Fold this protein.
Amino acid sequence: MSLQTIINIVDILLWILMAASTLYVLTFSLASLLPSHSSSHGPTKGHPQSKENQNPHPRFLILFPAYHEDAVIVNSVKTFLQQDYPPKQYQVAIISDHMSAETNRQLANLPITLLQPTFEKSSKAKALQYAMESICDAFDYVVILDADNVVATDFLSRLALIANKQEAIQCHRTAKNADNDIAALDGISEEINNCIFRCGHNRIGMSSALIGSGMCFNYDWFKNNVNFLNSAVEDRELEALFLKQRIFIRYANDIYVMDEKVNSSDNFQRQRLRWMTGQVLALFRMLPYIPKALVTFNINYIDKTIQQALIPRSILLVFTTFFTLIATILSLLTSYFSPFISFFSPLKWWVLLACLALSLIIAIPPQLRNKAILGKALTLPKLVWRMLTNILHIKPKNKEFIHTTHHQ
């Protein structure tokens, strides 16, 4: 086999690998531009549909799992308690895990339920399970928020308007800070994922992805299924459970949850390590069910499994740009030194890069598309390098919770 043949094969294989992820991103970015249809947000099977069966003020249980979150939890809870919703119709519970005595004292003085488990190895799944075992009151829905999440005063009122028709709702999590380029890029990344994996999916009648916070579930369903969670990526486990049971996940694009974005490269690396580990773990766990999903035509489950195999967007962007430039440079060099031999065809790479750029531009909200993004983008290669080093530390069987710290 000649050198030119080997080079062309490698070139084509790399292009196909990048093209598969790009096609997925482009498809759902374009889908997000479609008008919203009520049919794609319809009620889950078995849920009441008639107005007379709808409770105008369903009862909510609000869970704040808090592991070493002394810097942010008190402010988040105080902010949440300003809801304009009837106080008797919601209960806030804090699962205080390894927090200081002073933080617990401040929380105990608030009108909330304070739970203080002692886990040998902490995880968000364990905290949620502990809460569901400890609280015995009757509720209609459970809402899961992170310790740093802040919501508007009408958060529960807006949820109540749609909750009676849904088993599962993912709210619009968005950045509450843009301290530096890292935080700004993290916020942009979140919005891109919102567009592709949540809005774009819902617009064509497919289930939204979950994020891990800003989630609202039917209380009985969650109580019956929470004990199935046994990893550090509980949101992906919840997705798989919903999709196996063919329960639609609605994306509430207009109900916001403000989330603190990481503002240091170390925190960014730890956060992405957790996400990448979760992606690999979810892929391994979901693959065995694929034959049944194919036979039963469970499109949402198949789609979710494909998602786990996608190249992360930031890595995809940097690698596609890199290979496009390399293919172009080598093409120019071979054309100059050997006019009659062309080892590389950079056109397909430029087309791929253009498609990827188009999909990301669509996915970024208009208010974030400004000249400042170009300056922030210079930070991206460094962050991608951090993500690539994470590959060496991915352990699919690891169940240990990887914590990212928050600041006051």
Observations:
- Strands lie at 60-67, 90-97, 113-115, 141-144, 150-151, 168-175, 215-218, 249-259.
